[in-house]
Amino acid sequence: MCVILACEKELPTRALLKSCEVANPHGAGIAWLDKNKKVHYEKGIDADKIADMIDNNKISLPCIVHFRIASVGTSKGDNGKLLTHPFEISDDSKLRLSHVMNKNSDGVLFHNGTISEHADILKDTVMFSNKKMLKGVYSDSRIMSFVLAQYGHEFIEIVGDTSYNKYAILDKNGIHKYGTWYSDNKIKSSNTYYKVNDVKEFSYGGYEFPYSDYGIDSLNDKDTIFYRDACEQRESIVSNVDGLKHKQFFQHKQISQNLDKEIKKIKSKKKQKRERRENIQFLKKLNWVFPERLSNDDLVMYVEQHRKNTKSINDAEKHQQSKAPIKLTLNDYESLYRINSEWTPTQEISGGDC
Fold first, then answer.
1. Are 46 and 176 part of one and the same domain?
2. How far apart are the C-alpha atoms of 326 and 111, rounded to whole Å?
3. 144: nearest Cα among 132, 133, 159, 131
């Protein structure tokens, strides 16, 4: 999900930074504006490094901090560091871990969310803008920084889906925020998933949800007892319909149908809980921290996105392997010699290695 901290009046504390990092463990980045209106950024770092930079007075306001949890693009190794935020809003969106932007640049982009159609957006932008394809690793957020360089910040309002995605841009004019933001003292945050209270619940938009039950009602003892009794009652009704009068038969049939609906609902609950548990385990294997925070819909979306990315990588590797040169054996060379009289081997075909 990631989290963005937009700091215009106050710098974040070490405790706040560590809390964000626990919930979003795939690397951090920070950008700030100096007195000459130049944007500086450093990324591929952690909460302690950002806190040390603040303590040593290297960071000035306004600044933006981002902690990543990977949904599109790798989170591992050097490429994982390069895909932490921010990204330069430019024609090539260069991949570097630190830089000082030109005063007249378009600034840098931070993103919280997932842009599902990122590949199509990249393809269309390259075709219509006549720009070269991005080089190196990329994510949906890096793609958006490239797109904004062509069409301006206003493009976010068209395809950015700011009801779910949040964007923050830092340029010579300060911070520009898109989407719904929350207040943490004098700091604006793109979400509050990093806030965990004493009873292991997380807060989001003013509401609190237990980790274990978010997204689905628990299948409690009451449900279990009702499920057992409903099954027994239905079986009794079905087995005793013989000999009932016409009106009684349809009354019992209606009761049976209602019970079927209730049984189906509880079965659906059990299925949802099982699928939710499987999706959480899937994301944990990919180093996600607290995927329990996510709703069922978000869990499904992230799992499908990871599987889609994995399939794309596997397909690309297969395609690359299919383009590999074919190694010819001695028998292959003999066949070539027989069907092409103009081809003459440099060595005797029947002897030794070719």
1. yes
2. 45
3. 159
- Look at residue 317 in the predicted model and tell me its pLDDT: 60
Flag whether 121 is in a domain.
Answer: yes
Counted domains in the chain: 2
| Phi, psi for 303 (deg, rounded to 5) | -65, -45
For residue 116, the Cα-to-chain-centroid distance in whole angstroms is: 9
Domain shared by 168 and 242, yes or no: no
256 is in which domain, residue-wise? 221-308
Its pTM stands at 0.60
Q: Is-contact 108 170, C-beta < 8 A?
A: yes
* Contacting residues for 299 by C-beta, under 8 A, at least 6 apart: 215, 276, 279, 280, 283, 291
| 60-106 per-position pLDDT tens digit | 999 999 999 888 888 889 999 999 999 999 999 999 999 999 988 99
Q: Quote the CA–CA distance of 174 and 13 in Å, as a whole number.
A: 21
Say if 214 falls within a structural domain. no
pLDDT, position 193: 78
Separation in Å, CA 59 to CA 3, 64, 185, 189, 262: 19, 10, 19, 18, 59
Does residue 314 fall inside a structural domain? Answer: no
- Look at residue 183 and tell me if it is in a domain: yes
pLDDT value at position 181?
94
**pLDDT reported for residue 334:** 59
Q: Pairing between strand 98-100 and 39-45?
A: antiparallel
**Of the candidates 154, 187, 148, which has an alpha carbon nearest to the alpha carbon of residue 6?**
187
pLDDT at 107: 96
d(CA 278, CA 126): 38
Using alpha carbons, list the distances in angstroms from residue 93 to 38, 85, 118, 121, 147: 17, 12, 15, 15, 10
Judge whether 112 and 5 are in contact, CB under 8 Å: no
Q: Low-confidence residues of the chain, pLDDT below 70? A: 1, 160, 196-267, 289, 309-354
